[in-house]
Amino acid sequence: MKRNMSVNLNRCVKILALLLLMAGLAVLLYPNVCQYLYKRQAGQVIKEYDERLKKYVNPSPESNKGDWDRLHGLIAQYNEELFENGQNQLLDAFSYQQVGFSLIQFGFDEEMVGYISIPKMGIELPIYLGADKDNLAKGAAHLTQTSLPVGGMNTNAVFAAHRGFGTAAMFRDIEDLNVGDPVLVTNFKETLTYRVAETAVIDPTNIDAILIQEGRDLVTLITCHPYRHNYQRYVVYCERVMETRSEADNSGQAAVKDIRNIFRYSEMNKSQQLIFLEYWIPVGITVILLALAAVILLLKRYN
Fold first, then answer.
1. Calpha distance 33→20 (Å, rounded)
2. How far is CA 173 from its chain centroid?
3. Is 0.70 topped by the overall pTM?
């Protein structure tokens, strides 16, 4: 009888230790695995986009497919018209969702105009035309009635993205961007390099803050603020510079969740503190659970 009880107790101890071990690993790995899967998916979308563009290097007279010079010219004309009419169709949130310039006739399978790379944040997101829910769930969304991302004076292409949507970071770490950090926008024809010029916090209804600014070539990033709330918007204005992609990549260092940041926690703003805690609390819980599992196994061994 006692032997059976001892066997059952040992079995329960092993199961408990195993459960603690599995729980610790799940807490630690789940957000990282999900983020890895999203990055892999976004990377595949971007790879397929680049491959599709390469297919149409010699456009035929009968088709618009691959006629990137013509497409670039039409978009430049569209952007100029936006500037001249003062973006008078940019009236409300619904204006952002309707596609104002379709790419389908030029051989695109969907309204993906390119992708954005931000080395400091360690992200690369596809850019879709129209800021509706479906596009925001997939990556960055271009706000309709703002300039399309081909660059040029008197343009301002505005991209919105979720801040930590589900298990994808997207624009979560946007407040890590500092003046001078590079932001790269790749369209159907080329990669344009921008650098952070200024940041601002605005009300969601402040349309004037995202309008074209005369004499400037801008890309504007916008997301919810503060982190985990949406009653404000965090805006990053990026201005075009003439340099190569490799130069911009080399000058942008991805943000690292360094344990030394514990010592500067009090210097962070509230959003950064929350993001920091969300990263390190699971690590702490994992360490505690693993330690408990080890203690249980050691006690079993020496009893």
1. 19
2. 9
3. yes
